[in-house]
Amino acid sequence: AQIRYSIPEELTRGAFVGNIAKDLGTDVAKLAAANLQVLSDSDSQYFSVNVNTGVIMVSERIDREQLCGQNPRCFLHLKLAIENPVEFYRIEVEILDINDNPPEFPSDEVSLRIYELASLGARFPIQPAQDPDVGTNTLQTYHLSANDNFNLNVKARTDGGKFPELVLERALDREFRAFHHLVLTAEDGGSPPQSSKIRITIQVLDANDNHPVFDRPSYGARLVENSPLGTLVVKLNATDVDEGPNGDIRYSLSSHNSAALRQIFAIDEQTGEIRVQGNLDFEEATVYEIEVEAKDMGSPTMEEHCSVVVEITDVNDNAPEVILTSFSSSLSEDALPGTVVAVIHVRDRDSGEQGKVLCHVSPDLPFQLRKDYEHQYSLLTSTRLDREHVAYYNVTISASDLGNPPLSRHTILPITLTDVNDNAPQFEQASYEVLVAENNPVGSVLVTVSAADPDSEQNSRLSYSILRAGGTDPGLDPTRYLSIHPTSGQVTAKFPFDYEQTTYLQFHVEVSDGGSPALRNRTLVHVFIVDQNDNAPQVHFPRAGEDSAAQFQISPSIVPPALITKVVAIDADSGRNAWLSYHLVEATDLGLFSVSLRSGEVRIMRALQDTDASAHELLVVVRDAGEPPLSTAVTLVVLVEEKGPEALQGSEARAADGGGLPTITLYLIVSLVLISTVSLVGLAALGVRCF
């Protein structure tokens, strides 16, 4: 939208310009909530907006002549920006001229020397007055004081300037009057009008009675800007019918020309050729009007004036300019498509098609340009952004004009994406499986879990913790036995494990990042307790005290290989650590008895002889297959005696007891086989899983 206001210059600070809320048809409260901002195209902030009332006010002194010079119309441009959603409003404030400057002559007095034979109608230009105001407030007319010889003629130039000329209406007679004193008044059209005066002293000279005459009253030429130095503009021609010095003509640039024009053009005083001696820039001036005078060499000299109008043709010599009105170099990665990143103003000092500018950005970037209105673009995000994919962009704004060949300019905007916590931590493994030997040292590291978070800084700072999970013992709390370092992820044991109490433990490890809110993830850890040979075999039969031996009686007529007894032992370990072997290490007669390696059966190997002792002491050692092996010893005393009826009954009872031993042995063997099978299957499954 575009709104236009008009105000006079030189208003006081705080003066009312317009009510933007009323003119936009919106509520003042909405403008305040939308973070209303005033953006100016100029370096100074001449206006401000009261967000509580919506009123635009003057904030600095405005001098129209300083801002726009002699341009007939003067404008200041503002842009109002509001957020949620982002909208722009263009405001054009026209600065109206007031009559605050009177016309002023370059000096208070001017002297003219005019030959008495000057022709009627001869014109004598007077340095004009200058009035920086415009329109009706600028210089409008001149008034000449009453006299008998001169009338006033005001010459209007194409640029609107007015030059006074004294026109000789009645012949001069030096002998009658040698000096004429006139007053010239310059007056503007203001209300009330302002004026200034200059005194003109005219000295009437005698002699040279013909002045130079140009072959035409004005000349025209056309040049392209940036023409080389020395380029011929025009060749003037003036003639004087006088002879000798009075007819010898010299050309020069009139004092009416500005100092800047004199630096651009030069004239050859002999030939009248005007050439370029400075830089021609269409953007500074499109037309030059050169005042030239031709003087003869008489005494006094006589002169004639003409004007040369030089039109400048534009060429495409100015590249477009890119001006950042608003820009933020950092952008959150969760910015929605359509978010405004920068507001760009473009301009080209050339004219016509050469001054029209087109802007674009690379289609490979997640940004696009939106044309808000003439000469303004907004840089927007076109897609979702991901800092973890690309964290930094160099966005090149390319501005090209429509000249032939076109000129362009590239502006690079560095944009850094700020991180948001949009990525949860990820463990390197979905689950971990750990083998831990029982009786492990306290504080030993069982496993190190590791996770990664592609976010940055605080959002990527990870913290680990152990959560309770089910295991072989539903009531087992893993935090009672385990601890985890919150930053390294090292899981350590608080107590040694005992395979005979716990064979397997599982728990969850949770990792959370430092974002707000924090994102979390979990992994499952399986801990398998590996058995160690830490339990010696225990003899369950025959039972004997620490310092006593088990006694058995046999008949002297026993027939070998008769079973005397069976040593039964159990090992609380598992696997090879529970595989038992029985050894007869000491005996009164080693050749008389034997012990089965696996079953522990004690048998007599030969018939008893009269020479054999009546009592035999056997030392049986039960050893497991662990590394290193552990063992237990039991002492057996075998008595050789004839049994009476009671003794025989006791022997039969022992025999009955002994008859039950193979059943116990069978149960033990089956149990060992089952335990070994389960252990092997578990280890094989673990090996396959790890592979």
UniProtKB/TrEMBL annotation:
Main location, first listed in the record: membrane
As for membrane topology, the entry says: Single-pass type I membrane protein
**By its UniProt entry, which InterPro entries does this protein fall under?**
Cadherin-like_dom, Cadherin-like_sf, Cadherin_CS, Cadherin_N, Protocadherin/Cadherin-CA
**Keywords of this entry:** Calcium, Cell adhesion, Cell membrane, Glycoprotein, Membrane, Repeat, Signal, Transmembrane, Transmembrane helix
Record-annotated membrane-spanning stretches? 664-688
Instruction: Supply one GO molecular-function term.
Output: calcium ion binding
Q: Which GO terms describe its cellular component?
A: plasma membrane
One family from Pfam that matches here is: Cadherin_2
Name the GO terms of the biological process aspect.
homophilic cell adhesion via plasma membrane adhesion molecules
Q: What is this protein called?
A: Protocadherin gamma-C3
The organism encoding this protein is Mionectes macconnelli (McConnell's flycatcher)
Species classification: Eukaryota, Metazoa, Chordata, Craniata, Vertebrata
Gene label: Pcdhgc5_1
